[in-house]
Specification:
It contains seven helices and four strands. By secondary structure, it is α+β, with helices and mostly antiparallel strands. It is 40% helix and 17% strand. The protein is globular, with a radius of gyration of 14 Å. It has one domain (5-40, 72-137): Alpha-Beta Plaits (2-Layer Sandwich), CATH 3.30.70.141. The two termini are 22 Å apart. The structure holds uridine-5'-diphosphate. Uridine-5'-diphosphate is lined by residues 59, 63, 93, 111-112, 114, 117, 120.
């Protein structure tokens, strides 16, 4: 059975441009309940660990630099079929390929600076959520 929680980050590009409110509106209107949320900033070590799967890719250095250059909003979201439904709401990694009505279509500017993260599995959702939030911060 698909899990009911996913983890998201509103990335530094979208925070810098003042899109926190707009993105949170799309998330809640999409039927997701906010379980936990904070404004925080990733360290270089955090970002290298978070994106370790991409460490051999040519864009890895740029990705770590981007993700650490300013604050992010980290949040845990709840909904039936959370991981897949949230990936649908955010749209394709490359905003040029993102469907109409998706968060990345509206707010992302490039394949790197693409406004939001969404976990790609229930297992990663649990790992990523637990990295940012203690149990008592989850409602
Ligand atoms: N990314 C990038 N260049 C690429 C592909 C990905 O800078 O060619 C960045 C982008 O910020 C993306 C993140 O690396 O969101 C993780 O990539 P992934 O393929 O896991 O995409 P996602 O799951 O975020 O859609």
């Amino acid at each position: 059975m698909a899990g009911t929680r996913t983890f998201t980050m509103i990335k530094p590009d979208a925070v810098e441009k003042g899109h926190i409110g707009g993105i949170l509106n799309m998330i809640t209107e999409g039927g997701f309940r906010i379980v936990a949320m904070k404004l925080t900033q990733l360290t270089v070590a955090d970002a290298q660990q978070f994106y370790a799967i991409h460490k051999e890719r040519p864009f890895f250095g740029e990705l770590v630099e981007f993700m650490t250059r300013g604050p992010i909003v980290a949040a845990i979201l709840e909904k039936d079929n959370a991981v897949d439904d949230f990936r649908t709401l955010i749209g394709a990694t490359n905003p040029a390929e993102a469907a109409e009505g998706t968060i990345r279509k509206k707010y992302a500017t490039s394949i790197g600076e693409n406004a939001v993260h969404g976990s790609d599995s229930d297992e990663n959702a649990a790992i990523e959520g637990a990295f940012h939030f203690a149990g008592r911060e989850q409602f």
